[in-house]
Amino acid sequence: MRDPVADMLAGRPGRGLLPVYLALLGLCVSLGCGSKSAPKSARIPVTVAIAVERPVPFAIAATGTVEAIQTAAIGSQVGGTVQRVAFREGDYVRAGQLLIQLDPRPFGAALDQALAALARDRARAATARLESERAEKLFAQNMLSQSEWDQKRADAEALAATVRADSAGAGTARLNLEFAAIRAPISGHTGRVTVHEGDYVKAATSDPLVTIIQPNPIRVRFAIPEREVPLLQRYRTGNPRVEIHPDGSQVIPGKLVFVDNAVDPGSGTLLLKGEVPNPDGRLVPGQFVDVRLILYVAPKSLVVPARAVSVGQQGPYVYVVKPDSTVASRPVEVERTRDEISVIARGLSAGEAVVTDGQLKLAPGSKVSIRPSIGEEGP
Fold first, then answer.
1. Which of 115, 169, 215, 290 has the CB geometry, 3.0–4.6 Å to 245, for a possible disulfide?
2. pTM above 0.70, yes or no
3. Which neighbouring-strand residues pair with 72?
4. Distance between alpha carbon 80 and the CA centroid of its chain, in Å?
């Protein structure tokens, strides 16, 4: 009888061990003892955008301050007691509208007195003129001395001057009576009122009784750095436009109306002013707003989202998605970046897809899967 153990040691497997060999072989296969097959590489999810050509404005961004084109600080030219305030704070008033009425009685009495003095002196002047004319005739007939003729003539001239003075006094009294009714010199919105009925108002004080501003149109003052001045001078003949962004989203277009004639040596900036419509009164003097001075509009610029551009040791580059779903690193030249948009000067063509999110996981040749981006718009 053959020993199966000896046969195995001698390299002669017996017939009884065939099932054992088959079992061991199956176990080895199930445990992965054989050669392993390489797993398929996983695709990296990314979001993409298409490079497009479109008109792009060239703008200089700044922070501006809103100011009124016309402002009137209303005071009183005469002193008196406030009889009536004819408007409410914040009202829109028209030019010539009554704002504050002072007690007119003292001014009316002063006018009556001035008119009475004028009438009296006119009568005296008329009498003196007649006497001067008679004295002239008598002097011509040698019936009146030279001194008497000179006196009559001087009296007539003095009373004529008195009439002129009285007339001026009556005019002043009439003006004072008119000034007792304080009226709006311009149309606009009123501010805080500092007097009320019964208050005494002094004449020609520096503190305004109320301030009126013209709300529409309105201006915004802003400054650009000295290094941008050559650009402004280059494109100034093309009528640069001004855009106001009061809340970061809405755009109010306007025009450039003022450029200062010198750079401020203290700040190194040049003062400019833009004018924009303000029919709803949204812009208020003193308010800070974002301003864009649009010098020109490039008709065809290749743009991509700014987040698609990465910066490496060799400079800026983008990942371009190829038709086989792999990516390639492409160096690009960025002309400028503004409002999350990069203008590409070289290195990219219109219609190519660039990766906008997921670049950190990529390497040249990586396979990608394009995932939809929620709420994203093209450049």
1. 290
2. no
3. 212
4. 42
